[in-house]
Amino acid sequence: MDSVDKSRRAALNTLGVFGAGMWLLPSFPFSSKEQNMIKRKIPSSGEPLPIVGLGTWQQFDVGLSDEERRQLTEVLTLMIEKGGRLIDSSPMYGRAEAVIGELAAPPAINPNLFYATKVWTTGKESGIREMNDSMAKMRRKTLDLMQVHNLVDYKTHLQTLYKWKEEGKIRYIGITHYTASAHETLERVLKSEKIDFVQFNYSIRERNAEKRLLNAAREKGVAVIINEPFESGSLFNAVKGKKLPEWAAENDIQSWGQYFLKYILANEAVNCVIPGTSNPKHVVDNMGAGFGRLPDEKLRLKMIEYLSAI
């Protein structure tokens, strides 16, 4: 179990929801038959993308046990069933790319995913080898999104990616980072280079991206993917033993996970948030954040104030 799932489970356990087992996690509030997950268009193409996806750092870096693979297959199946599409990985994530390639191979899963991974090395030829290797592991002849991980040698890799996009080997180009200290550099790159996506950290407590980066992405027509929405699980530690406010349910917020995710998704510059989990119940709960009402600015301020006070 990864650190986020541990923190989330601990917070829920304190509230008593695990008293009769993990199956008492907050239920999915909207049936996919009644309503579709909210989608936002990728600015460079107009393609609609569901606003909640899946990260795979730690969670998909697993061995060969049947139980581990069965649970992750269930996670993928439930994500698709509830309307999610984007799955994000990297060579940095150990066996994650290969695990995705294996588990997503069945036809019920494969065509429904939006495959995103990264290049994380220096040098043109090393980058080409690594990206080809990633595509082979993920069993893809064409990749939806290739991103330069943490901006490592980004000027070199972007030249390769521009060519690959023209050739149809990839559909979209992106850059990523996971720390607020890199936001200024990300902004500079997205303004100077021709990219389709930028991925960075953003949460209800870590709001540095609201100062400039989110607006810069919107103005330049660059799609935004958000990582670290739960701050590696520390947000769940902060609300351990605490109840949701009474006004949460009336605003289609059914759990603390949805509270944190809906705050992020209320910003219209955000195209997709990618909370990571290996827990089937948690992925259902995460997907629920993509349904129903999203907070307006007044409610977002109220959400910050409530969290700060507990």
TrEMBL record:
Keywords: Membrane, Transmembrane, Transmembrane helix
Keyword Signal applies: no
Gene3D superfamilies per record: NADP-dependent oxidoreductase domain
Chain segments annotated as transmembrane: 12-30
InterPro entries in the record: AKR2_Oxidoreductase, NAD(P)_OxRdtase_dom_sf, NADP_OxRdtase_dom
Domain NADP-dependent oxidoreductase positions: 52-298
PANTHER family: D-THREO-ALDOSE 1-DEHYDROGENASE (PTHR43312), NADP-DEPENDENT OXIDOREDUCTASE DOMAIN-CONTAINING PROTEIN (PTHR43312:SF1)
Annotated protein name in UniProt: Aldo/keto reductase
